[in-house]
Amino acid sequence: MSIEFRGVSKRFADGTLAVEDFSLVVPSRSITVLVGSSGCGKTTLLRMINRMVEPTAGSILIDDADISEESPVALRRRIGYVMQNSGLLPHRKVIDNVATVPLLNGVPKKQAQSAALTLLDTVGLDRSLADRYPSQLSGGQQQRVGVARGLAANPNILLMDEPFGAVDPIVRAELQTETLRLQRELDKTVVFVTHDIDEAFLLGDQVVILQKGGRIAQQGSPAEILAAPADDFVAEFVGADRGRRVLSIQQVDGVDILVDGDGRPAGRLGGSATGRRITETARIDETKAGARTASGAPAQGERAS
Ligand SMILES: Nc1ncnc2c1ncn2[C@@H]1O[C@H](COP(=O)(O)OP(=O)(O)OP(=O)(O)O)[C@@H](O)[C@H]1O
């Protein structure tokens, strides 16, 4: 399912203009990442997709249908939402947290619980955790439950708001890889919010770099942005000017991942749900210090093992 923002603005009651005249097409069955620093309007944009926040101007369409004509409750039940700190209900067991939305949708309890167990498998959690309460899980496990809950109604669209912001870097890397695997397996349209450009490049088929007011500084594939940052702001944001983009390729779970000189994920090659395969040729520059920096994805011949 594709999502389209058409000239969307949001002014909150206190006068704050969080988003101004924002237009974007989120292609079906791929991951679009909204990335930008704090307060630039990412969460507001995400929440307008499921009508948790109502735009003050413009429209949002899902598969060409204006969402303002659909009831917010019905919309929210068919769009998965995963938030930071998992948003789990503390007094409900894991299995009941996962089954919440299907139960609200009228699925019989036994069926919803059996589906919830299958979802624990899907997100890589042992079924023995089903009867625990959220506080009895690690942060990473809680986030996985949050993802399982977001997927429970089998939505075509999954909104993820800084879902891995609160976990340590190692668990975070695991969860990022799992997200890529899930996207390949389940073929959802994912809109992912983060302030971390490395996470954005790793996960995004389309990356949208935002400035205050939801202004788009640049949008494109990770390779396109790395190859040609639109301006100094983008260049600084992606680190291109700091010479830290020494790119090489590592294989993770069958996916070619671009990693930078510090070993951090910097993007993804091929294997996306849209079948996109990045073939742009990298321009490998020699910096004054002698370090190699790439301003784009390495060419085929540059592939490291
Ligand atoms: N309910 C609200 N009332 C008034 N202003 C709000 C409200 N919610 C958000 N804002 C303001 O709108 C702007 C955008 O907020 P938003 O939460 O969308 O940013 P963000 O990019 O997601 O930030 P962060 O990364 O810190 O979560 C900010 O200036 C914020 O203070």
UniProtKB/TrEMBL annotation:
Ranges for region Disordered: 280-305
This enzyme's EC code(s): 7.6.2.9
Domain ABC transporter: 3-238
Species: Naasia lichenicola
Protein name: ABC-type quaternary amine transporter
Family statement: Belongs to the ABC transporter superfamily.
Keyword tags: ATP-binding, Nucleotide-binding, Transport
Cited Pfam families: ABC_tran (PF00005)
InterPro entries in alphabetical order: AAA+_ATPase, ABC_transporter-like_ATP-bd, ABC_transporter-like_CS, P-loop_NTPase
EC primary class: translocase
GO molecular function: ABC-type quaternary ammonium compound transporting activity; ATP binding; ATP hydrolysis activity
Domain of life the protein comes from: Bacteria
Annotated Basic and acidic residues bias: 280-289
PROSITE patterns noted in UniProt: ABC_TRANSPORTER_1, ABC_TRANSPORTER_2
SMART domains (alphabetical): AAA
